[in-house]
Amino acid sequence: MKWIEPKYSKEKVKRAGIGLLTYDLGTDEFFNASVIFHNWRSAHAFPMQIMLDLLRKNSIRIDKRAVVVQRLKRVPSIFFKLAREKNMSLSRMEDIAGCRAVVENSRYVRRIADSLENSRTKNRLTRIRNYIDSPKPSGYRGIHLIFKYNGSKEKFIGMSVELQIRSKVQHSWATAVEVVGAFTKQALKASSGESIWLDFFRYASVEFSKLENEIIDQSYSGIDTFAEMDKKYRELDLSERLKAFKVAATALSQDKEKGAGYFVVLLDIEEKRVRFTRFGKQNLAQATSFYNDQEEQCRDNQYKDVVLVSAASVRDLKKAYPNYFADTDDFEKNVSLVYKANKSIQPTAGASAELRR
User: Against a cut of 0.85, is the pTM above it?
Assistant: First the structure.
């Protein structure tokens, strides 16, 4: 396979990131910055593949049923991060390329992270973020490791890839946050949005953590997190809302093809539909070009979301990125387990709305 190589210096990449936030659309300056940007993002595909192999090897050794996939960060997400974090530059962004492993439980998450930390690889581990012991303000939990490529292909040396490891429970929570965020147009994963949603997910995160027997941080000492979660759940009439967010993706669930390679996935929030275009493993350049075109077409449409991901099959794609199919089934199952653990009755769809009348 011929990989896309970075053509520009990191200084030019840095200036391009600044320019995309400041140049007027349609100008030559904006176009030139876009060319540099897309080359830089696409060039992450090779180091991302190397790190995918590293993550898969270490994950499967510990959990044979681990689901391991990769993705390039979406343009809107990159722009949002550049605008939100004042000291962030495009050339230093560590999660443009990301690989994710979803495993059975949080014990496996810790073991895989330890295995990666002690793995024999030429690539350099530069950062570990343990969001299980120290969750994000949003309530997000998992472990992230940043590796820099340090192999034989000199042009890629120093390019970063983020490896995310989540348990199934943690993944179901993160998926629900993204689904709700997408449909309500709130940056909930960045702790921005309506307080009722933010509070619900924070308390749900604590209760989900209890399902895995994790130690709860002291900031929740003296707070009945289940009572708070239950209160928000009823006020939001969440069961009914999640049903409204379901996406009709029948074609995806029926597709059985293996070894699929790359997918460009388009989520149409308004029409509640998902479309995907498949590319073979040898067609990364075509997949990237098509992805860039689709993002450009959807740039001004707040109801459409596009992503380029790689997975061994549609089944793995749906397991690892259920948020793109508005699939919150696992989240709802875990909410039910929380109610059972607290010996409380879970409100049915529409019940909360009835109580408010």
Answer: no
**Residue pLDDT, tens place only, 110-125:** 999 999 999 999 999 9
CA-wise closest residue to 260 among 125, 11, 69: 69
Type of residue found at 214:
E
Q: What's the helix, strand, coil split of the chain in %, to 5? A: 50, 20, 30
- Mean pLDDT over 271-284 rounds to 80
How many residues does this entry show for the chain? 357
| Mean pLDDT value across residues 306-311 | 76
| Best CA proximity match to 347, nearest among 208, 241, 206, 199 | 241
CA dist 231 and 225 (Å) reads: 10
**Bridge partners, residue 162, by sequence:** 98, 146
Residue 221 and residue 154: Cα distance in Å, rounded?
51
Name the phi and psi angles at 160, rounded to 5: -95, 150
* Dihedrals phi, psi of 53, to nearest 5 degrees: -60, -40
Tokens representing 275 are 């479309």
DSSP state of 154: G
Q: Do the bridges between strand 97-103 and strand 160-167 make them parallel or antiparallel, or are there none, so unpaired? A: parallel
Q: Which one, of 165, 160, 178, 161, lies nearest residue 115 by Cα?
A: 165
Would you call 265 exposed, middle or buried from its count of C-beta atoms within 10 A (0-12, 13-18, 19+)?
buried
Strand residues in 239-303 grouped as ranges (E): 258-268, 273-279
Task: Find tokens 């909930």 and name the residue.
Answer: 188
The enclosing H or E element of 145 equals strand 143-148
Amino acid at 337: L
Q: What is the enclosing helix (H) or strand (E) of 199?
A: helix 195-211
Which tokens hold the place of 9? 């210096």
Determine the Cα–Cα distance for residues 210 and 200; give it in Å rounded to an integer: 16
Distance CA 110, CA 330 (A): 21
Q: Which are the contacts of 234, defined by CB distance < 8 A and separation ≥ 6?
A: 347, 351, 352, 355
The model's confidence at residue 104, banded by pLDDT at 50, 70 and 90, is very high
